[in-house]
Amino acid sequence: MEDHRILKHPILPIEEREDVLFTWNGEPLLAKKGEMISSALIANGINIFGHHHKDGSAQGIFCANGQCAKCTVIADGLAVKSCMTAVTPGMEIRSLEGLPELPDTAFIPKYPPLEKLEVDVLIIGGGPAGLSAAIELGKYNINTLLIDDKQALGGKLVLQTHKFFGSEEDSNAGMRGIEIGKLLALELQKYPSVQFWLNSTALFVFSDQKVGILKDGIYKLVTPHIILNAAGAREKFLRFPGNDLARIYGAGAFQTLVNRDLVRPTNRLFIIGGGNVGLIAGYHALQAGINVVGLAEAMPQCGGYKVHSDKLKRLGVPIYTSHTIINAAGKETVESITIAQIDSEFKPIPGTEKSFACDTLLIAVGLNSLSEFTQEAKEAGIQVFSAGDAQEIAEASSAMFNGKIAGLTIAKEYGKEEVEGIPSEWYAKAEVLKSHPGKIKDYQKDLPEQGVFPIIHCLQEIPCNPCTTVCPTNSIHTEDDGLMSLPVYSGNCIGCYKCVLICPGLAITLVDYRNDKEHPIVTIPYEVFNIPKTEGEEIELVDIDGNPLGFYPIIAVLDVKKSHTQLIKVQVPQTIAKRVASFRIQAKEISEPLSSPLISEKLPDEAMVCLCERVKVGDIRKLIKSGITNLNQIKAITRSGMGPCGAKTCENLILQLLREEGIPTENIVSNTLRPLFIEVPLEKFPDGD
């Protein structure tokens, strides 16, 4: 079988890992030690993990976060979520064809006595918010337990190879997410009052004020005085004909494969969603050696930072704003997708359809806060706080900062007299860090025609300032000294490249007139050097929007290993020097649409709402039109929400349909959620508890 492992990456180290032998439907294959089953299968070119028992449709990974059940396989006779189950030597894995067989009922597990633990504070989630809060609590010696369901602390930080925005002082702006995650985890270990459990999932906050936790497959009960919900968010799904095909991923699943497990799951990727998550995933794909066919965004402009979308366009990825997906096509897996332009009412405009060949579709259309634990704690009468995406969807820089605020707030609430209170400027900065992108302005006009100086291609107001703090001559500052203000140059540049290297958006180039005023040298940052560029090679230079400026030879390549960045130098005519923003690396042919659009015979109402129980849009719409607005009644009739994912995917889609049919929010009766966060075998619960 073809090996889909990433053997070269510009940011991530490629380390030798021990091979583990397992079987897939009787065929011997190799995984890496500690690897999840799903990653091992995809690394071996296997993308279909089974077929649904209702309609025989192909099943494969979607979330890689244990939230859905599309990736279920049979491992050593038991049905397991392959994204959350590690391969063990000799493991016999087979595809799930239909319903799984029940295991031998004669098997009686033996468990140690049920562990019961009382703590001052329980933090659910070891991502940027949870870690930052735990560190603050550790400073005040508060007995704290932090739990996370992954193998390492850091949450989504461990998947982020790009440099972070925000403030260098408060959120390590200019540092890569993977580095920030390690930094926070190391800081946490300084405080003995904080313990952390990995591979540990909070199941429910019970009415007797105990929290059930499944740690390494063993059930435990924790009684906290205070809970901090920092569990993050789950990704939204999208309805369109063909949304039940295999090889449709959430952005988190894609980044888990390429950046955590170094597995290349696709050759031709198309992205739906132009927020920061989708834009960053596209950049990560290029770094993993994956062709990004295109990206479609329904709004007139991308919701993510302009520097992110600019970066993709400059490298050769087309972005289709005011476009939506019409359908995905393929026998069992995605083989092509069709998009179309939409009008002001978000209706597809006939005749604007374009189809593209691709083998994988990435859905990045937003997140829902994982607020269940907050609500459960309130109902149980436990004092509860929230931070990060569990409180409000924002960037990781914001999550770290409001995690600090939450930790200090809890310390004060717990009665630590030495806590004087939260500085007012913290709240102000927290608001700035979660700000949406602001105004887009023009380039700075008063730049010289001599010497050396930076060209700042960051034209949108976003919370970011590392270029101002790294400059040794203080030649870069923001317009009004605010974090959201645009950086401007005024000073005495010495050509040290520090601003070029630290910019999270790769949005600074350096123009040097000192040797030749008519043909200055432009220095461009480059982080995709797994697609190598060499001295003497001609590259197609482009402006901020990806418009071509001509082909010019590279005169030097500087490899700055500490920054995992290369500096590409070109000599160009003075007339274009200030316009050069980057260069194209992806061939135009990769993104060419098919000669004619592939219009699906399926109607929009044939799209799936509930993937677990195979419930279609039309089934739900029919009930709504008949007057049913109670989600529990819809669930009882269609079984939508009764599948393994527990309505985590379909509820949001059903709410969308209710809104489309003009149903006021106050007339909608919410779902009664199942009592456990994830499905758990009864054998995990010791007798009597």
Could you name the key traits of this structure?
single chain; 689 residues; alpha/beta; FAD/NAD(P)-binding domain; 7-stranded mixed β-sheet; globular
List the helices and strands and how they pair.
Blueprint: E1 19-24, E2 27-32, H1 37-43, E3 50-51, E4 58-59, E5 72-75, E6 78-81, E7 92-97, E8 115-124, H2 128-139, E9 144-147, H3 168-171, H4 177-188, E10 194-197, E11 200-205, E12 211-215, E13 218-229, E14 233-235, E15 248-250, H5 251-260, E16 268-272, H6 276-287, E17 291-297, H7 306-315, E18 319-321, E19 323-329, E20 336-341, E21 354-357, E22 360-363, E23 367-369, H8 372-380, E24 383-386, H9 396-413, H10 424-433, E25 452-456, H11 466-470, E26 476-478, E27 487-489, H12 498-502, E28 508-512, E29 521-526, E30 538-542, E31 548-560, E32 565-571, E33 582-583, E34 608-610, E35 615-616, H13 617-625, H14 631-638, H15 650-660
Parallel strand pairs: 1-7, 3-7, 8-9, 8-13, 9-10, 13-24, 15-22, 16-17, 16-22, 17-18
Antiparallel strand pairs: 1-2, 3-4, 5-6, 5-7, 11-12, 12-13, 14-23, 19-20, 20-21, 25-28, 26-27, 28-29, 29-32, 30-31, 30-33, 31-32, 34-35
